[in-house]
Amino acid sequence: MADLPTLLALYRHLNTEDPVLDLQLAQSRLAEILTHPGMTILAAFDGDKAASSVTLVVIPNLTRGGAPYALIENVVTHADYRQRGLAGAVIHAAFATAWEKNCYKVMLLTGSKNPATLRFYANCGFKQDKTGFHIRRPAR
Predict the structure, then answer these.
(1) How far from 139 is each of 111, 135, 136, CA to CA, in Å?
(2) pTM above 0.85, yes or no
(3) Which of 6, 46, 73, 131 is most buried, by the most CB atoms less than 10 A from its CB?
(4) Which residues does residue 55 pair with via DSSP β-bridges, in sequence order?
């Protein structure tokens, strides 16, 4: 919970158009994350400052011999720390965690069309050989 302020500052570099999250709501959400089975936030720090982070979710499964699978979300690096290998390090830490949990695969979706971003994910070991779909909740 002590890392919440630096995580919130880091997330401003992910979706700059997002509204600033109310601190009480942010505390509640982080408490949920910290107690949610299979969910964790991995981060690289420079002292007390979060420089790069990913969220990893390990999901139980009834196929693949019961082996779980994992999802990586919210990949972000603070603008001042980019091109230093930090995102790759936290992604590889997420892989290690997933393999320790016996996951048979790790998935990641990106909305980026930037060739450098896609190359980065490929260099981390991801294969772009699936078709992804998503739907967002309609505006109220």
Answers:
(1) 20, 12, 9
(2) yes
(3) 6
(4) 41, 73
Distances in Å between the Cα of 67 and the Cα atoms of 42, 56, 100, 108, 128 are 22, 16, 11, 18, 22
Question: What integer pLDDT is reported at residue 90 of this predicted model?
Answer: 98
Q: Percent of the chain having pLDDT more than 70?
A: 100
117 has a pLDDT exceeding 90: yes
Tally of residues, the chain:
140
Following DSSP, what letter does each residue of 28-69 receive, concatenated? Answer: HHHHHHHHSTTEEEEEEEETTEEEEEEEEEEE--SSGGG--E
Question: Strand pairing partners for 50?
Answer: 45
The span from the CA of 122 to the CA of 136, in Å, is 26
Buried b (16+ CB within 10 A) or exposed e, 99-119: eebebeebebebeeeeeeeee
Q: Are 90 and 73 in contact (CB under 8 A)?
A: no
Instruction: Kindly tell me if the per-residue pLDDT of 140 is higher than 90.
Output: no
